Amino acid sequence: MPDIDLGSAERVIEAAKAKAADLGAKMDIAVVDAGANLKAFVRMDGAWRGSIDIAIKKARTARMFDMNTGDIGALSQPGGPLYGIEHSNGGLITFPGGIPLKNAVGEIIGAVGVSGSSVEDDHLVAEAGAAAV
């Protein structure tokens, strides 16, 4: 199974930190490997401590289901086909800020999760991180 290496995970973190700084946001940024295990993490100075767990869970959720967390959120609304899914797997996060990471041939090698600002900013920062792979 293809997996993210440490150097790539660190590039994801650096790109996400740069985007967060551009937005004036203080973020918690997590990268998980192909098995949804934590590979790299950073809490920017002043970032919310409560967002540590959220960032990690966004990354895990994105990898466990191989889709953006915001997309899962849309499917998990009342009446939706995935309603209640956030209660599975030890707790998932189903709002934007988690994105699967793919290698050059399109294989999923991990995921990034970001928390600490609006969900829109979280998603933008995660996108910047994902683009660094």
Commentary on this structure:
The chain has helices at 6-23, 50-65, 69-75, 119-131; strands at residues 28-33, 38-43, 98-102, 108-115. Strand 1 and strand 2 (38-43) form a beta hairpin. It has a single domain (6-131), classed as Beta-Lactamase. A 4-stranded antiparallel beta sheet has the order 2-1-4-3. It starts with 5 loop residues before the first helix and ends with a helix. The chain contains 4 helices and 4 strands. Helices cover 41% and strands 19% of the residues. With 133 residues, the protein is of the alpha+beta class.
Question: How would you sum up this structure in a few lines?
Answer:
The protein contains four helices and four strands, in the order H-E-E-H-H-E-E-H. It has helices at residues 6-23, 50-65, 69-75, 119-131, and strands at residues 28-33, 38-43, 98-102, 108-115.
Query: What is the C-alpha radius of gyration, as a whole number of Å?
Result: 13 Å
Largest sheet: 4 strands, antiparallel
Report strand order across the widest sheet. Answer: 2-1-4-3
The first-level CATH class name: Alpha Beta
CATH H-tier superfamily:
Haem-degrading domain
Which features does this protein show?
4 strands, 133 residues, Beta-Lactamase, alpha+beta
List the helices and strands and how they pair.
Layout: H1 6-23, E1 28-33, E2 38-43, H2 50-65, H3 69-75, E3 98-102, E4 108-115, H4 119-131
Antiparallel strand pairs: 1-2, 1-4, 3-4
Helix pairs in contact: 1-4
